[in-house]
Amino acid sequence: MQKNPLTPQGAAKLREELQNLKSVERPAIIQAIGTAREHGDLSENAEYHAARDRQSFIEGRIKDLVNKLALAEIIDPAKVEGFRVAFGATVTLSNTATEDTVTYQILGADEADLAKGSISVTSPLARALIGKEPGDEVRVQMPGGPRTYEVLEVVFK
């Protein structure tokens, strides 16, 4: 079984979602199914079928979250030291062709959000960056074609 790297904040968000699903969503959907049953013929009851579909989704998500948390390897980036890119690092890059700079934090797949400046440790860019240090160049095959970046800064915070 492969470990699931998470920051303490990411693990807390998953635990919070799991708690909400178990204590709020699950009881609400059980109530909705009960109410829909009271409406009669289940074979033609759209409310009942929608509630059962929702219940199936919730139960699946609960199992998924339990598995992710069971395999979680909590890594606090603030406690990591070093100058090489690793999980949790905030990396500033310069596109060598356009000289544009971008900054990404490398997080687990469950925490990554490009709009918030974080990428998954399993993404092509993050995989290419792992182990690099400031001054190194990396060439990455991106969906828009190959790109070359220079690592400007690596910070753990």
Describe the structure.
The chain is α/β, with parallel strands linked by helices and 157 residues long. It folds into 2 domains: 71 residues, Transcription elongation factor, GreA/GreB, N-terminal domain (Helix Hairpins, Orthogonal Bundle), CATH 1.10.287.180; 80 residues, Chitinase A, domain 3, CATH 3.10.50. It is built from 3 helices and 7 strands, in the order βααββββαββ. Strands 5-4-3-7-6 form a 5-stranded mixed sheet. Strand 3 and strand 4 form a beta hairpin. The mean pLDDT is 91.
Q: What gyration radius follows from the Cα positions, in whole Å?
A: 22 Å
Number of strands: 7
Question: Which fold name is given in CATH as the topology of the largest domain?
Answer: Chitinase A, domain 3
Number of continuous helical runs: 3
- Element order: H for helix, E for strand: EHHEEEEHEE
Largest sheet: 5 strands, mixed
Q: What structural category arises from helix and sheet content?
A: alpha/beta
Give a brief description:
With 157 residues, this protein is of the alpha/beta class.
